[in-house]
Amino acid sequence: xxxxxxxxxxxxxxxxxxxxxxxxxxxxxxxxxxxxxxxxxxxxxxxxxxxxxxxxxxxxxxxxxxxxxxxxxxxxxxxxxxxxxxxxxxxxxxxxxxxxxxxxxxxxxxxxxxxxxxxxxxxxxxxxxxxxxxxxxxxxxxxxxxxxxxxxxxxxxxxxxxxxxxxxxxxxxxxxxxxxxxxxxxxxxxxxxxxxxxxxxxxxxxxxxxxxxxxxxxxxxxxxxxxxxxxxxxxxxxxxxxxxxxxxxxxxxxxxxxxxxxxxxxxxxxxxxxxxxxxxxxxxx
Length: 285
Ligand SMILES: NC(=O)c1ccc[n+]([C@@H]2O[C@H](COP(=O)([O-])OP(=O)(O)OC[C@H]3O[C@@H](n4cnc5c(N)ncnc54)[C@H](OP(=O)(O)O)[C@@H]3O)[C@@H](O)[C@H]2O)c1
Prior knowledge:
Blueprint: E1 3-7, H1 13-24, E2 28-34, E3 51-55, H2 61-75, E4 80-83, E5 88-90, H3 98-126, E6 129-134, H4 147-167, E7 172-179, E8 191-193, H5 205-209, H6 222-234, E9 242-245, H7 247-266, H8 268-272
Parallel strand pairs: 1-2, 1-4, 2-3, 4-6, 5-8, 6-7, 7-9
The structure holds NADP nicotinamide-adenine-dinucleotide phosphate.
């Protein structure tokens, strides 16, 4: 039976690339979600029998419920959920606008959780499914002015690593994709930017001023990224838990994690000194 993919944020970037790949395959159905129906006109070139266009703002529970029920009605299942919709934010921590930061958390973290909760009952019933989260290289390492964006993606990592354990016995896989900078609208119209006013942070201003307002010259190729994501789900016996993509994710992520491992190891004595008794076979909190 054909697998059904539901992808959020298919108006542009990774979501649009992935939607076109799924739509072009014989044996996959596509539920393409966007905030505006007209943004999905590009799908009209594909077989409409295997495509359902739906409106989803991931912060809107009733749109999510309605879209998931329409998808289920048309295709009977949802086999792959791609939590792709997301925003960026460029600012030093101290100068960040907390309303904008809260909204980014609504989309990047709670929106992703809203979608997952709407689809999990279907996947639990069918005892199979894959949940793909567009995390970021900035959930493996960090950069000045990207702190609150990283915080949303680190939140996604902690959420997903826990969910994976809870649903593993139900036949449901959870894959986090951690792309490096790629040529989408993410750092353009999908990001608010606050150039530092505080003189102590002037050195970080350049990195924000030079962020393009449109598609950047970042090395990541969105089409290649979408192809890798598709192939890891459809052509791979073992679905990865993590998929770091691009040099920054690979080298920056490894460097940061190696530092963390070495720091944890160097604190072994003090770390183990704070328990009253030695740990048994299992951790107890
Ligand atoms: N490009 C990168 O360098 C990069 C690197 C690592 C991770 N990521 C992540 O990749 C994901 C996709 O971003 P992208 O790079 O493809 O950027 P993009 O081209 O700007 O696409 C972002 C998508 O998210 C949608 N979206 C924003 N807010 C939404 C909401 N409230 N509800 C539903 N959809 C919403 C946008 O829809 P509208 O058109 O309606 O605004 C758009 O379809 C994001 O989660 C981003 O954080 C990007």
